[in-house]
């Protein structure tokens, strides 16, 4: 997938010039993966990566909260990963291989989706490099079904498959089946429900106990309340606010070695740019959390 420069701005994440987007020098690599083969309700997340990158071109380089320009760490945008329509397992393997190449090149991997099923690819790859890996999932849905619509690799099975690889911690959950609720105590998963977070639960001490040395963060954008971000395939009321989610993320970035993240399930709505911009801003803020200390030392 190719796009022309827009009004002289390069088509890449944040629209940054070559000296900041050069693949050889960049510390972070954005991998766009437009795939939504197992989507079961509202479609369109295959358009998410394009919308996020386009919106990112309007995000200010300077992050007023962090006091830095995170893009100074260098962010290269990789070619769009062509979907493999033979099935979700094949696409997960394709993403896994692409992320493996990013890791071997010494870059910090950032996956832009696309549906949540393919987040298993980075988890698989990173688990081969880090013995103490854990996954922090922001999601409205537990995604703990062993199979859904005859596939164990559906978007509704992501956390079930991930916990077979390493410990999984979830934040913002507010929808799960009766069987998932029955299975949860036996699984390698701790779920912080949205209602607990809204009630003022202090997660920090427990997060430090649950999360291993290295953490991969997976963000299904339906973790946010629909009043904040409505452009998702399966919205659920009662979600997290922007500040609730970022408070948790910032704490984890400061206290653990975050080795990659993804932003998944944006399904752009015609004429509504807000959700696209929020997703782009979130990705950029998370890059800032990762490289803030390095950038402040060199400034």
What does this structure look like?
With 299 residues, this protein is α/β, with parallel strands linked by helices. The chain has one domain (16-298): Ureohydrolase domain (Arginase, Chain A). It is 33% helix and 16% strand. The protein contains ten helices and eight strands. It has helices at 18-21, 48-56, 88-104, 120-127, 158-162, 178-183, 194-198, 204-210, 242-255, 274-298, and strands at 28-33, 75-77, 108-113, 133-138, 168-173, 189-193, 214-220, 257-264. The protein has an eight-stranded parallel beta sheet, with helices on both faces. Strand 5, helix 6 and strand 6 form a beta-alpha-beta unit. Helix 2 crosses helix 10, helix 3 packs across helix 4 (120-127) and helix 9 runs parallel beside helix 10 (274-298). The longest helix has 25 residues, at 274-298. The mean pLDDT is 94.
Through-space gap between termini = 36 Å
Label the CATH architecture.
Answer: 3-Layer(aba) Sandwich
The string of secondary-structure elements, in order, is HEHEHEHEHEHEHHEHEH
For this structure, the CATH topology is Arginase, Chain A
Return Rg in Å.
18 Å
Mean residue pLDDT = 94
The percent range for helix content is: 25-40%
- Bin the strand percentage: 15-25%
Flag low-confidence runs: none
Total E-strand runs:
8
Determine the structural class based on helices, strands and strand pairing: alpha/beta
Shape: globular
Largest sheet, in brief, is: 8 strands, parallel
The number of helices is: 10
Number of domains: 1
